[in-house]
Write a structure and sequence with these properties.
six-stranded parallel sheet; alpha/beta; 2 domains; 10 helices; 27% strand; Quinone Oxidoreductase, Chain A, domain 1; 31% helix; 314 residues; Rossmann fold; seven-stranded mixed sheet
Amino acid sequence: MKVSAARLIEHGAPLRVETVELREPEKDEVLVEMSWGAVNPVDRYGAMGLTAPDGPVPRTLGSEGAGTVGGTRMLVHGAGLGTRRDGLWATAAIVPRAALTEVPEGVDLDQAATIGVAGATAWTVVTELARVTAEDRVLVLGASGGVGSMIVSLAKSIGARVWGQTGNESNRDWLTDLGAEHVVVSDESHLETESGDLSPTVVFDALGNGYTGKAVAVAAQHGRLVIFGTSAGVTGELPLQAVYRKGLTIYGYGGLIAPEQNLARAKQQAIQAVAEGMMRVSVGATFSLALVNDALEQQAGGSVKGKVLLDLRT
């Protein structure tokens, strides 16, 4: 079977959309007719050789997506897809059965395509690490991102007060609609002034750099700080006296090192939360497979509201 696929030929070089021949599925593998592929930072890092540098080259990229298996709608993610083996940015793919999660009624396939990475991360950091309750005051840094926007809606559904931070004024109404009581439009230099009135009991940080120190500064006594990304910079400085004098707890979450059984549970729970309306998925931009490099640039720019997707149906 011949398919079109976005292929990594050389680290750091643009991907090539090529026609490739799919092999026959082996034991415990299936053929998935792909519909959507999510574009994540980890995919971009893979193209650059920053993650999975020893993965096979050439290979098809794409670590998560959604499609159908024999007419059954499936979320596809995990099992080394896009890193140790060919991934999902193709019109069809051979995948391990272990990478499949059935999509429930009430969830569209484009929404399902975001659950393996962003959805599972949002669910885990909110419900398992921070253990947000209706008593919490939550500040979401990078609220306009794929994970941040899901956190806003999920924390609001739990009953917490939620503030969202963004660097773009145009995101204000959208974040309010997702559930943010107040939207802080600010970079790190004004974050403490703009969000200090909340005195958040939980801060979710997808940004790093100068934002992390400011998160510590605004956090309430005995608050929790959850770090799950560094899109603004991979280093930062912590005001250590504030950390111990406030009795803060700092958590770190990385989906790439999450145990498979934990990730499988998070995907099931996250996709059910979407089906029940507890967590909302926002798709900000879609690209055809032919424009995969434009999609990667868009994701890197950080200007999209929510997720960037590839439409793999044509």
